[in-house]
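Hi everyone, sorry if this is the wrong subforum. Our group has a chain we'd like a structural model of before ordering constructs, and none of us has done structure prediction before. Sequence below.
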Amino acid sequence: METRLDNSGRASWTDQFPGNFLWSNAMLVCKGMAPYGAVAVADIDRIAARLEAGPTTPEAWQDAWCEAGIAVEARAKEAADAGHARTAGALFLRAGNYLYTGERFVPPGQEKRALGEHAFACYHAGLRGKHPEIEFLEIPCDGVSLPALFMPALGARRPAPTVVVFNGMDNCKEMSVLFAGLEFAARGFNTLAVDGPGQGESLRLRGISARHDYEVPAAAAYDVLAERADVDPARIAVMGYSFGGYYAARVAARERRFAAGIALTAGHWDLAAFQTAVREKARREQKAVAQSNFQFQWVVGASDADSAIVAAERFGVGTIAHEIECPFLVTHGADDRIIPVANAQKLFDAVASKRKNLRIFTAAEGGSAHAHVDDRPIGIAYAADWLADLFAMRGETA
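Answer:
Right subforum, don't worry. Here is the predicted structure as tokens:
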């Protein structure tokens, strides 16, 4: 394959399709799961070669990823039939990620739902085979039920501190429980990865749209955790990444039982203004933006594009940041092309907590892309260290 160069003339693997940020960003999200054995770089290389050689259409994207996912799923089933549960689990996880990536640009409807069902079936088979320690939970919330995954702390004293993780707009709990949960578990933390309203399985299979008042699902998650003997209710933190940076800030501001909050990427200061700009930019060139033209409208359950902008007015970080009084960490990538790095400083400055920290990751050290997807381990490790210091766990964690 042709070597890509960034603006500095250096080889870049984060911009697979120069001039097509829509595809490059989506592929980078999938590449970011490689450190957790949930994708294979060789598979992605073959998919990229096929996409580069063909038409730049949503159908071409879907076909390349979904055909790869189905092929890997077939290998997973062969391993399962042979009694090799862990091998099958690893392959099912790959298949789930490829199918979920292939679903990304399919408009809402029956086909998208079917692809989502297929992806989650593979994800779940993969988690049960590769990570049987993970529990599948349901969070009762305001008349609906939110699916969640609980990764227990490894070798830790009980009860243990716990991190509730909310995803970004395009991610799901199956990704979160791996890239965040595995590291947190090794550090002595439980992890509860939740598909909140407007996220992952909750949106795709249950039709639960996003809500601005995320303290409601967060409170429901807290209630479930507080009843568990392996959870210390006094040491439950909330973390959100990408679009979840808003959710983490909102929860920390409004649900005071959480002991700490982490925005692993600051949220949009004024989401309505951002979404308006994205819509105008996409009208000129869809490939220049990170989200498809239907994505935000679908996530918030709006009837049309104008209604989606109205809904966005309630999601901005700027209206609630000053209410955050618990310890709070903001991390951000210096080269974030989706949420401006300036938003991280704005959020940090506005937070009212006496114990707050800001960390900007540069290209030289890694983690400089959106939500640190170019080096997820470095972002999660920093968050885990911050929590360990906060909860005085230096002697208990790795």
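For your construct planning: Residues 394-398 have pLDDT under 50 and may be disordered. Residues 58-81 form the longest helix (24 residues).
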